[in-house]
């Protein structure tokens, strides 16, 4: 290439960098945007982030720039909220302005803005309201769904018994139970754990979260316009989500053929009836595409997150056998071994309740939550955040607050117990996020975690294959979600059975 052309390109690049830096500093001097590191052209602040441990990177930046700071993540200007006060002030006190879903290209490509997770405006309001009402009508948060979870817990125990106390990886078994609970609400189906169709669905869901949490998908989210058509794991993720949607669409078609308005069976039937009611409305949000994407969102939020928490929770209990022993003692005292655990037991079991909360706090499953978006130019503290700016509510900074949870890096159920050993609630407990976009399945997830953990420990003693002090609980990835390391354990039948 002609040296003069090379020099011209070099000069143009330098001028572009200089203009970007000057514009960035000018915005800060005018007090419009929160402070933050100066970005590089194109790559933004990507060099300040460890893509295998984004939470740690954000903590370091917060120490330098404060609880509200700005990052340029690829082509997206983003404001990070660090700490309880900042997150609460934005998502609760200014809930309407911060309620929209933020820019997350991987989800946008998968859903095309359909369903609940990635949608905004009237579509999001209608689909979320409908889903909440329908799931509650089918028992979510009520005694009827509790009975379903109890029955699934019994089947989980039977599946664990099949391991015969031999070393096993609990990933699949622990995934089956929450998946079947969601299937009962969505499809009115219960799958046998060895059903090939069920095994296929479980594999898709497990691969989904692992890929979403990989460093490559974080790179895709920051630079999707540049790398969308290049080879990479994003194509594998898109293929998996397409297969999930095909699975769901087959169920929808089956429901269409057997739909009886006088016998509404499940969520899909309710949605199909709503579609029929609004078929004369050309702009109705109730259509097949939104149905498939909404069901996919419910599976994503209600299956893999719960099963990963269970799997990570058992690893923490293996690491801390003294805590596990206290749970056994409380189960023996309150429930015994002649009946199944129920939600009424939770109020009588402060220690077990505290352990379940501490598991969720400590593992910090979705550290940056899903991104939000300001819907208008918003005055926030001394800053003005422009309309359309992506917001990251950094939940790790709330769950690991040193004042609320002394020694937050230590796994300690005492974080949720008062001086008398009673359970202690905390406003800082935000594993499901908070505000208008809080997880709509929070109540169901809390119920499942308590009942599945207590039922497992009522029936089995957990045995580690290595010395507990040598167990490494560090996540293998900390992108979208924290993925626990693989491990094996033995489920030994309780002597009291």
By oligomeric state, this entry counts as single chain
Number of strands: 11
Order of helices and strands: HHEEHEHHHHHHHHHHHEEEEHHEEEE
Name the strands of the widest sheet in spatial order. 1-2-7-4-3
Count of discrete alpha- or pi-helical segments spanning 4 or more residues:
16
Q: What is the residue-averaged pLDDT?
A: 90
Straight-line N-to-C gap: 80 Å
Main location: endoplasmic reticulum
Transmembrane segments: 6-24
Pfam families: p450
EC number: 1.14.14.1
Q: Can you walk me through this structure?
A:
The chain is α+β, with helices and mostly antiparallel strands and 497 residues long. It has one domain: Cytochrome P450 (Cytochrome p450, Orthogonal Bundle). Helix content is 52%, strand content 8%. The protein contains 16 helices and 11 strands. The chain has helices at 3-29, 54-65, 84-93, 105-111, 121-137, 143-161, 171-186, 196-212, 215-227, 233-258, 267-277, 288-319, 321-334, 350-363, 396-399, 442-459, and strands at residues 68-73, 76-82, 100-101, 372-373, 378-380, 383-385, 390-394, 460-464, 477-478, 482-483, 489-493. The strands form 4 sheets. Strands 1-2-7-4-3 form a 5-stranded mixed sheet. The protein has a two-stranded antiparallel ribbon with strand order 5-6. It has a two-stranded antiparallel sheet with strand order 8-11. Strand 9 (477-478) and strand 10 form a beta hairpin. Helix 6 packs parallel to helix 16 and helix 8 packs antiparallel against helix 10 (233-258).
Question: Which helices and strands occur, and which strands form pairs?
Answer:
Layout: H1 3-29, H2 54-65, E1 68-73, E2 76-82, H3 84-93, E3 100-101, H4 105-111, H5 121-137, H6 143-161, H7 171-186, H8 196-212, H9 215-227, H10 233-258, H11 267-277, H12 288-319, H13 321-334, H14 350-363, E4 372-373, E5 378-380, E6 383-385, E7 390-394, H15 396-399, H16 442-459, E8 460-464, E9 477-478, E10 482-483, E11 489-493
Parallel strand pairs: 2-7
Antiparallel strand pairs: 1-2, 3-4, 4-7, 5-6, 8-11, 9-10
Helix pairs in contact: 6-7, 6-16, 7-12, 8-10, 8-12, 10-12, 12-14, 12-16
């Amino acid at each position: 290439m002609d040296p003069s052309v090379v020099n011209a390109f070099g000069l143009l690049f330098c001028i572009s960098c200089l203009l970007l830096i000057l514009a960035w500093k000018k915005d800060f001097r005018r007090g419009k945007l929160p402070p933050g590191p100066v970005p590089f052209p194109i790559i933004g602040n990507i060099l300040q982030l460890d893509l295998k441990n984004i939470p740690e990177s954000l903590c370091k930046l917060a120490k330098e720039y404060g609880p509200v700071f700005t990052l340029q993540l690829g082509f997206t200007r983003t404001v990070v909220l660090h700490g309880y006060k900042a997150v609460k002030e934005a998502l609760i006190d200014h809930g309407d302005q911060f309620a929209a879903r933020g820019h997350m290209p991987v989800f946008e490509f998968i859903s095309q803005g359909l369903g609940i997770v990635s949608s905004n405006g009237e579509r999001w309001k209608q689909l979320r309201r409908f889903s909440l009402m329908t799931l509650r009508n089918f028992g979510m948060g009520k005694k009827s769904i509790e009975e379903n979870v109890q029955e699934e817990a019994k089947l989980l125990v039977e599946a664990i018994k099949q391991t015969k106390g031999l070393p096993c990886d609990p990933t699949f078994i622990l995934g089956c139970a929450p998946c079947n609970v969601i299937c009962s609400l969505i499809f009115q189906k219960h799958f046998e754990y060895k059903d090939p169709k069920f095994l296929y669905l479980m594999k898709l869901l497990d691969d989904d979260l692992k890929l979403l949490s990989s460093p490559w998908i974080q790179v895709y989210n920051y630079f999707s316009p540049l790398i969308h058509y290049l080879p990479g794991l994003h194509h594998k993720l898109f293929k998996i989500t397409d297969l999930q949607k095909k699975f769901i669409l087959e169920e929808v078609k089956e429901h269409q053929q057997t739909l009886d308005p006088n016998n509404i069976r499940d969520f899909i039937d309710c949605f199909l009836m709503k579609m029929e009611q609004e078929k004369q409305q050309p702009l109705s949000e109730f259509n097949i595409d939104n149905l498939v994407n909404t069901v996919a969102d419910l599976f994503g939020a209600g299956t893999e997150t719960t099963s990963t928490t269970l799997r990570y929770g058992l690893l923490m209990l293996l690491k801390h056998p003294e805590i596990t022993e206290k749970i056994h003692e409380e189960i023996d005292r309150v429930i015994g071994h002649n009946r199944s655990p129920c939600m009424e037991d939770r109020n009588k079991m402060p220690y077990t309740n505290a352990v379940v909360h501490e598991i969720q706090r400590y593992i910090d499953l979705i550290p940056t939550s899903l991104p939000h978006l300001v819907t208008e130019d918003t005055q926030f503290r001394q800053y003005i955040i422009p309309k359309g700016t992506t917001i990251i509510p950094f939940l790790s900074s709330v769950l690991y607050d040193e004042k609320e949870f002394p020694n937050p890096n230590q796994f300690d159920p005492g974080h949720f117990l008062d001086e008398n050993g009673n359970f202690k609630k905390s406003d800082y407990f935000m594993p499901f996020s908070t505000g208008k976009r809080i997880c709509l399945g929070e109540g169901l997830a809390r119920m499942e975690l308590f009942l599945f953990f207590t039922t497992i420990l009522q029936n089995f003693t957990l045995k580690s294959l290595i010395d507990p002090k040598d167990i490494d609980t560090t996540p293998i990835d900390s992108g979208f979600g924290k993925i626990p390391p693989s491990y094996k354990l033995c489920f030994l039948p309780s002597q009291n059975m």
